[in-house]
Amino acid sequence: LNPPHVLMNTSRSSSLQLRSVLSVMTFGFFLVICISSALSNDYSLQHVVQLEVQHLRQELHLPVRVDDEETETLLGDINKTSVSSSIFANKTVAVNSTSEPTIQGGEATDPQTRAQRNVVRKMMKHAWDGYAAHAWGKNEVRPVSKSGNSGTVFGSSDCGATIVDSMDTLYIMGLEKEFARGREWISTSLNLTKMSGHISVFETNIRYVGGLLTAFAFTGDEMFKTKAVEIVEKLLPAFATPTGIPHGRVNMQTGLVMKEARSILSEFGTLHMEFSYLSDITGNIIYKDTVETIRNFLDKKVKHNNLYPNFLNPTTGQWGENHCSVGALGDSFYEYLIKEWLRTGKTDEQAKKMFDEAASGIEQMLLQNSSQGQTYLAEWKGSQLEHKMDHLACFAGGMFGLAAASVLEDTNRTKLMKMAEGITETCHRSYENTVTKLGPEVMRFDGTSRTFDRSYLLRPETVESYFVLWRLTKNPKYREWGWEVVQALEKNCKVEGGYSGVVNVNYERSSDDVQQSFFLAETLKYLYLLFSEDDLLDLDQWVFNTEAHPLPIKGVNTFYRAYNALESSKVLHYEL
Asked: Among 79, 113, 155, 397, which one has the highest count of C-beta atoms within 10 angstroms of its own C-beta?
C-alpha cells in the first residue's frame, strides 16, 4: 500500500478523493484496527473508524466532520473482509456502551446515608487540611505535634507521599481546590531522587505509582503518567537478579540496590497490576515483562499444600523459612492474583489458576475456627500453626468476596462467600471487643498477647471488606459496622492537626501522633464508598490496588486510556 501523500496528487477539495483513499486503504486500515484492538478494547470499531475518517479529512484539508455515509462505507468494506470475524471474535469482553464510568457523585437516595457520607467527606477535608497546614510537601504529618513525620517508610524527604496517595480520594469526593493544589505540587515538585538511602520498591509502587496511575485514568492528564514512568524507571535496577525476583530496596538517587538474602512475597508479588497497566498505557512492554517474569518463576516453583512461603532468595531462587501467611509478609500477593485476573477483563488465566490453587491451600491449611466460633486465618510456621491473625489479613474478607462473585458454580461460590463473611465477622468483633471500638493490630486465639498487638494504625483492611461485602450482599450490617468505625475514629483519633493512630485500643485517645498516608488513600475512601451508590467506582469497571487506588478494567472501562488507541493507528496507517 502507498502512503496517503502518494495518493493525494489531485484536488484536495473533493470528498470523492477521500472516498478513493478510503477504498485503497481498506485492507491496510483493517490491519490497523486489528492491531489497535489487540492493544486496547477501549474503542468500538465504529468509533475508531470515525476517528480515522476525521483524521483523513484533516490530511485532505476537507471540513473536519464525520460523515455517517463515509463511516458506513468503510465499515461495510471491513465487514466484507473474510478474516474480520475471527479477529474480533477473540475479544472476550465487548464494550457495548460508550457511557463514562462514574467517578464522582453517587450520592445515596436516603437522607441518613447521605448524611453519613458527608461526615466521611468532612473527615477527609480535616485530615487533608491538617497535613497541608503543618507538613505540606512532607511525606506525612504528625497531627498532635503539628509537624512533618520524619519516621515514614520513605524517610524524612520532602516527597509528598500523602499528596500522591490522596489525589484520587480528593477527586472522588469532589474536593476540587485540594485536588488542584495537589496536582500543581506533583507537576512541579515531585521528585523521588530527594529520597536518601534505600527505599522500598513495594511501598513506592503501591502508593506513588498506583496513585499516579489512577489520577491518569480519572483525568487523562499525561503529567500523571509521565511521573509514574519516571518512578518505575528508578525501580527497575532492583529487578536485575538471576531469577528476576527483585531485591526489596533501591536507592532512588544512584540506582544501587540493597542486596539481601531474601525478598518478601507480599512485596515482590504486589507489582503486577501497576506494571502491567503502565505497559498498556505507554506501549512499553518492559514493565509487563518484568512482572510476568516474577509470576512465571513462582508458578513453576514447588509449593507444599499450594501455599507460598513468605521469603525467597532472589539470587538462588530458593524458598526461605517455612512461614506462610495471609497477613503481614504474604497478604497482597494473593490479593493481586485474583485482582489482576479481574483487571485484565478475566483474561489472565495464569493469575486465576494460581489464585484458585492458593485459595484451596489457604482453606485446607490456614482457615480455622476458634472455640468462640470465630473464623480466622492462622499462620503456618515451621511445621505447625500459629493461631494469630493480623489486622492486615482482614482484607481477605473482601478478596474472597470478589472471588465468590466471579464463580459460576454454586458450591464454590457459597464456600468462598462463607469464608469472606466469616473472616469479616471476626474482624468486626475485634473492633467491638475493645474500649475504643477500634481493631487491634494483631488478634491472637491462643490466649497470648504482646504490646504491639494492641495498637491501631488507622488501618483500612476491615472497612475495605465492609465495603466489598456491602456491594455484593446489600446486608445493612456492613454499613452499620462502618458507621461504628467512623464514630470511633472521631472519638479516639481526631485531633486538631488531623487524625492520629492509637497506641492501645483499650485506652481512649492514646495517640501515636502519626497520620498515615494510607488513612486518606484507603480508610476514608472505603468508608465514603460504603455510603455511596454502587455506580460510583462500579466494581464491574474498577479494581482497587492494595493501596485502594482504583485501576480500570481492560475491555470494559472507557477510562482505560490504552497507549495510542487513536494516535498509534495514525502512525501505523502511514507505515502501511
From this structure: 397
CB-based burial label for 480 (10 Å; 0-12, 13-18, 19+): exposed
Query: Which three cell numbers mark 282?
Result: 505507554
Residue 53 has a CB neighbour count (10 Å cut-off) of 20
Angle, in degrees to the nearest 10, between helices 410-432 and 396-405: 160
DSSP category for residue 509: T
Type of residue numbered 318: Q
Question: Can you tell me the distance from the alpha carbon of 135 to that of 511, in angstroms, rounded to the nearest whole number?
Answer: 18
Amino acid at 553: I
pTM surpassing 0.90? Answer: no
Q: What is the pLDDT of residues 200-217, one digit of tens each?
A: 999 999 999 999 999 999
Q: Give which of 494, 487, 538, 552 is closest to 519, Cα–Cα.
A: 494
Active site residue 178: no
How many residues make up the chain in this entry? Answer: 576
**Catalytic hit among 70, 274, 425, 441:** 441
Report yes or no: 235 and 201 within 8 Å, Cβ to Cβ. Answer: yes
Please name the residue that has the C-alpha cell 508479588: 269
Residues 266 and 331 sit within 8 Å (Cβ to Cβ)? yes
Note the pLDDT tens digit of each residue in 264-292.
Answer: 999 999 999 999 999 999 999 999 999 99
Spell out a b/e string for 354-370, using b for 16 or more CB atoms within 10 Å of the CB, else e. bbbbbbebbeebbbeee
Alpha carbon distance 16, 71 (integer Å): 14
